[in-house]
Amino acid sequence: MAAPTEAASDSTKTMRLRYAGTCRECGASLEAGTKAVYDRSTKTVTCLACPDGAERALKETVVAVADAADPAPDPVESGSAGSSAQREYERRKAKRETRIREVYPRLGGVILAVSDEPQSTTAWATGARGEELLGRRLDTLSDRGVRTLHDRRIPRTKANIDHIAVSPSGVFVIDAKRYKGRPTLRVEGGILRPRTSKLVVGSRDCTKLVDGVHKQVALVRAALDNAGFDEAPVHAMLCFVEADWPLFGGAFVIDGVDVLWPKKAAERLVSPGPIDSVTVDDIHRTLAASFPVA
Predict the structure, then answer these.
(1) What integer pLDDT is reported at residue 199 of this predicted model?
(2) Rounded CA gap, 22 and 29, in Å?
(3) Separation CA 165–CA 158 (nearest Å)
(4) Global pTM?
(5) Are the beta carbons of 108 and 100 closer than 8 angstroms?
(6) In angstroms, rounded to a whole number, what is the distance separating the alpha carbons of residues 220 and 131?
(7) How far, CA to CA in Å, does 158 sit from each of 152, 153, 226?
């Protein structure tokens, strides 16, 4: 797989073929790795020796010369893991303190000192810490070809994506959670009733988290397709930070989503894959533009 260059049409791009093919114009055999024009609308290729391919190559030469004259692109802002969750925690904390001091002008400070913050507030601080810990771990993989984006806003919503990682093995949408208890896969049903799978953490049913990750993956998939990276695989992960994982095993897959811990996630990210380093950087930049810093 290679990065798409400026297209002759919306459906074509010049790339190094991942698989062997046959030129639709002259019938020549094209080996994997050969540079050719790929038309994703017809799933066909044209070699650069044919007129259509030669015209495409000439256009790319013009584009390359123009690109060479342009200044280097601005660096990608990777974001700060957990920053939006931390801001929400601080907002809620300040709002509570202001309300108590207004209602109890003289005793407000004492009440705040002896009372605990509500769980609905502390949950944001807990989540922010989990995202921060995972983000640090992912950032250590940069020298192994992994590019990361943290705390990315989903346009036209108040929601965000905790982490997006791009590596030779694909694009990874990672939702970080810092829950107490052991994540397990619980399968129910069988002969007399439908078989269902549940994600349980401790005694808590967290299956809805799987649906949330699927929605994020769909958005990332659409952004990649619109940018011409329709062949880049997208993987979903739920990463539980500081959970009660067993010493051996423990990771599992539910409805196509990997459920694991930071070290295991890092191992998946650095595994070999079909995407070259130039394309990794291009995908990273594309997703950074599609999902701004939250």
Answers:
(1) 97
(2) 5
(3) 21
(4) 0.75
(5) yes
(6) 19
(7) 11, 7, 22
**Strand 170-177 and strand 234-240: pairing?**
parallel
Question: By mean pLDDT, which of 44-58, 62-76, 233-247, 272-286 is the weakest?
Answer: 62-76
Tokens of 32: 């994997």
Residue whose pair of structure tokens reads 């079909």 in the numeric block: 274
Dump strand ranges (E) for 17-156: 21-22, 29-30, 35-39, 44-47, 147-153
CA distance 95 to 104: 14
Q: Are 201 and 185 in contact (CB under 8 A)?
A: no
pLDDT band at 94 (very low <50, low <70, confident <90, very high): very high
- List Cα–Cα distances, 210 to 86, 132, 194, 238, in angstroms: 23, 21, 19, 8
| Digit-coded pLDDT (tens) for 141-158 | 999 999 999 999 999 999
Strand partners, 38: 13, 45
